[in-house]
């Protein structure tokens, strides 16, 4: 298993995973390398369910180790929305800018101390002949009143991290990866991967 397929066509996610997997010495491919495969429909009600759906489907098609993530933003003042609908919150056409503007509009009258939120990431690891495993990570923060920063993607420009007094979009990729929800989930994956690759996963 010297190749791992990350089940995403999102270039931002693909770049983050490639950076994180460099230390494993594994060849990282994404669905951008397999244009013949259609997007897997995300019909699950949780991040875990959607990640499993994607990982198992691509694993079945390729016969390789596949890691799929489903992640999003959960805002307390919006009862956990946008949640699993984060990527298409403003409509079926994915638009980071439209999603951000919708969130800011919905929080327009919400004071700073009540704008608490978290990014959540579920990773599913599917291997031929093995039971699919999942790990998850979170990153706590709050939603700003306007965009700040140009790094990252998605909701990063409005997600403020108290620890660094900056939004995700103002952090370097290295710093973001060290604290992000995806980074936290990947740390857990790193602990499990040697066991999974050794074929000892139950």
UniProtKB/TrEMBL annotation:
<keyword id="KW-0547">Nucleotide-binding</keyword>
<dbReference type="InterPro" id="IPR002637">
    <property type="entry name" value="RdgB/HAM1"/>
</dbReference>
<keyword id="KW-0546">Nucleotide metabolism</keyword>
<dbReference type="Pfam" id="PF01725">
    <property type="entry name" value="Ham1p_like"/>
</dbReference>
<comment type="subunit">
    <text>Homodimer.</text>
</comment>
<dbReference type="InterPro" id="IPR029001">
    <property type="entry name" value="ITPase-like_fam"/>
</dbReference>
<dbReference type="GO" id="GO:0036220">
    <property type="term" value="F:ITP diphosphatase activity"/>
</dbReference>
<feature type="binding site">
    <location>
        <begin position="181"/>
        <end position="182"/>
    </location>
    <ligand>
        <name>substrate</name>
    </ligand>
</feature>
<feature type="active site" description="Proton acceptor">
    <location>
        <position position="70"/>
    </location>
</feature>
<keyword id="KW-0378">Hydrolase</keyword>
<feature type="binding site">
    <location>
        <begin position="8"/>
        <end position="13"/>
    </location>
    <ligand>
        <name>substrate</name>
    </ligand>
</feature>
<keyword id="KW-0479">Metal-binding</keyword>
<feature type="binding site">
    <location>
        <begin position="153"/>
        <end position="156"/>
    </location>
    <ligand>
        <name>substrate</name>
    </ligand>
</feature>
<feature type="binding site">
    <location>
        <position position="176"/>
    </location>
    <ligand>
        <name>substrate</name>
    </ligand>
</feature>
<keyword id="KW-0460">Magnesium</keyword>
<protein>
    <recommendedName>
        <fullName>dITP/XTP pyrophosphatase</fullName>
        <ecNumber>3.6.1.66</ecNumber>
    </recommendedName>
</protein>
<dbReference type="InterPro" id="IPR020922">
    <property type="entry name" value="dITP/XTP_pyrophosphatase"/>
</dbReference>
<comment type="similarity">
    <text>Belongs to the HAM1 NTPase family.</text>
</comment>
<feature type="binding site">
    <location>
        <position position="71"/>
    </location>
    <ligand>
        <name>substrate</name>
    </ligand>
</feature>
<feature type="binding site">
    <location>
        <position position="70"/>
    </location>
    <ligand>
        <name>Mg(2+)</name>
    </ligand>
</feature>
<comment type="function">
    <text>Pyrophosphatase that catalyzes the hydrolysis of nucleoside triphosphates to their monophosphate derivatives, with a high preference for the non-canonical purine nucleotides XTP (xanthosine triphosphate), dITP (deoxyinosine triphosphate) and ITP. Seems to function as a house-cleaning enzyme that removes non-canonical purine nucleotides from the nucleotide pool, thus preventing their incorporation into DNA/RNA and avoiding chromosomal lesions.</text>
</comment>
<feature type="binding site">
    <location>
        <position position="41"/>
    </location>
    <ligand>
        <name>Mg(2+)</name>
    </ligand>
</feature>
């Amino acid at each position: 298993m010297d190749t791992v397929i990350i089940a995403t066509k999102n270039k931002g996610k693909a770049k983050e995973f490639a950076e994180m997997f460099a230390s494993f010495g594994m060849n990282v491919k994404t669905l951008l390398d397999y244009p013949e495969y259609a997007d897997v429909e995300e019909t699950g009600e949780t991040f875990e369910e959607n990640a499993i759906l994607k990982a198992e489907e691509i694993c079945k098609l390729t016969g390789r180790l596949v890691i799929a993530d489903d992640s999003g933003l959960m805002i307390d003042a919006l009862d956990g929305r946008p949640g699993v609908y984060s990527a298409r919150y403003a409509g079926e056409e994915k638009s980071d800018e439209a999603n951000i503007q919708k969130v800011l509009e919905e929080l327009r009258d919400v004071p700073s101390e009540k704008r608490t939120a978290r990014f959540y990431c579920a990773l599913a690891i599917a291997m031929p002949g093995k039971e699919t495993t999942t790990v998850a990570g979170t990153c706590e923060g709050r939603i700003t009143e306007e965009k700040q920063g140009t790094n990252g993607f998605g909701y990063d420009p409005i997600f403020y991290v108290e620890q660094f007094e900056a939004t995700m979009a103002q952090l370097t990729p290295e710093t973001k990866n060290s604290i992000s929800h995806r980074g936290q989930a990947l740390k857990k994956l790193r602990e499990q991967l040697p066991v999974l690759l050794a074929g000892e996963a139950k």
